[in-house]
Amino acid sequence: MSAEQPEAPSSGVRIMPGRRGHPTALVMGEDGIETCLHSLYDPIREAGSFVAGPVDAAVLVFLGTGLGYHLPRSLANNPHVNRVILVERHPELAELAAARLCQGWNGRIEVVTPSTPGGGFPPVPEALDAAALYVVPHPPSLRAHPAWYDHYRILLATVGRTGPAADRTQAAGRPLTILVPFEAYYVQRECIHGLESLGHRVVVLDCRGREGDEASLFGEALRGERPDLVLSINMRGLDRRGVAAQMLRRLGIPLALWFVDSPEFILYGEALPPADGCHVFLWEKSYLPAVAAQGYRVSHLPLAADVRLAGAARVEERFSAGLSFVGNSLASGFLARLAVKFPVTAQVMAFAGEAVERIIAARGDQLQLVDQLVAEGGRFLPDDARLFFRAYLLHSATSAYRTRLLGQLLPLGLTFFGDPDGWRKVFGSAIDARPDVNYFRETPAVYASSAVNVNATSLQMPHTVNQRVFDVPLCGGFLLTDRQGALGELFAENEVALYDGISDVAETAQCYLEREGLRREIAERARRRVLGEHTYGHRMRKMIAEVLGAAARPA
Prior knowledge:
Elements: E1 13-17, E2 23-28, E3 34-36, H1 43-47, E4 59-63, H2 71-76, E5 83-87, H3 91-102, E6 108-112, E7 133-137, H4 139-144, H5 146-158, E8 177-182, H6 188-197, E9 201-206, H7 214-224, E10 229-233, H8 243-251, E11 255-259, H9 263-266, E12 278-282, H10 288-292, E13 297-300, E14 321-326, H11 334-339, H12 346-361, H13 366-377, H14 386-409, E15 414-417, H15 420-427, E16 432-434, H16 443-449, E17 450-454, H17 468-474, E18 479-482, H18 487-490, E19 497-499, H19 505-513, H20 516-533, H21 536-548
Parallel strand pairs: 4-5, 4-7, 5-6, 8-9, 8-10, 10-11, 11-12, 12-13, 14-15, 14-17, 15-16, 17-18, 18-19
Antiparallel strand pairs: 1-2, 2-3
Helix pairs in contact: 5-7, 5-8, 6-21, 12-13, 12-14, 13-14, 17-20
């Protein structure tokens, strides 16, 4: 076939010359859109980004081949490999890639491709073991036919290794291996520390900067590991198509999902993991019924404190404050980013303004009210905008609640730590607004150095408490927080200091500012409670026990 003459698109494949003379391929994807599998200018140079480096596998599997430009170079990096499997959706591309590979290589080539266009999922060769093969994906091919290649991603990550995983009844009394996808995201480090404090081995799957590659990362990790459990926070580290979750299901490895934000917004556009291999934990009880209705086993699991923070809890002059608040003003770009997801008309924004007032007034029952408000506002909104409008209402109400609350405390000399420009936009340039503080290294010192640390709970949390409720007493600080239903379940009455709302927060704060001895007594009692019941070690122990059905802890 001449590179100058395009091939007739008899099976959804069109081959044509690129601008530098090298052939390039275009295919009709499963979404009906033609996709280019190679650079139109220089496919040879582009192929360098798809080449496999040296690997320790005996078999290379090319998942999608295109015209095979990256195949010879991948094999040159792996001279020990003498068996290659080509998994390609289009038979003619598989044939051309195999022909390119045969030029100068004498190993064994096996091809997995439909015998006819649209011919389903042919089987992979027999006697394969996922632990002995390395998968080399060709991203443009996978983008063109994601569902077809998803089938083989799952199969290749589990072939030869399916069947029951380790006997869960033997989990108690031995250290476990637990895989945690990691993106330096909220509470991920804390969970890892909690697991390690229990003596478990944590395999950290580093997903930082690898968005879109999660399925490949999981496939490679599972090639060398057979963890007892995988823990994901807010679905982080799991691919949007659910491929990694299906790998775990086939291997019999349970998946624990801990939502520490609203699951409704996180799950938007995501493929839900199989319910029979997944246990969902929620930091807020109010979301339990909706998630359980999806068929999942669900449990309530509050946030906690990471005991490692206590090591940085030193009294420092630069963080000294009578009354302090650590946090963002929410006056920056977050609400604006939500607002672009729905029509911002005068009518919609007027409705939103009234809705915010009603939500603040309904603290404790606000989620039911928000559902009602979104239904009422639906006449202004397309269906696909309602979830974003819901989030906008909740976060707008939180911003307004927090601003009004903290405004009451300004006459008492409130000091802000974090987002100084945002807080000055809200309250003016005369306030004491200090720079952002590092959560692990500096925030503990702020808590220890402030006479009263003020907490204002997000309105997406009608019942539970945020992490500050545990962190402040752990660090030896005194916390003044709003009244939440969960506080009575987590602390005794003499272990917490509460205000009832915006109207009484200043009077309550002034009372505690004047009573240093009482502050010390409450803070010490709360600290003992946190260390005894509310660390991430406690939470991880409960999670493991519920997922595996036994209190799994090292001997």
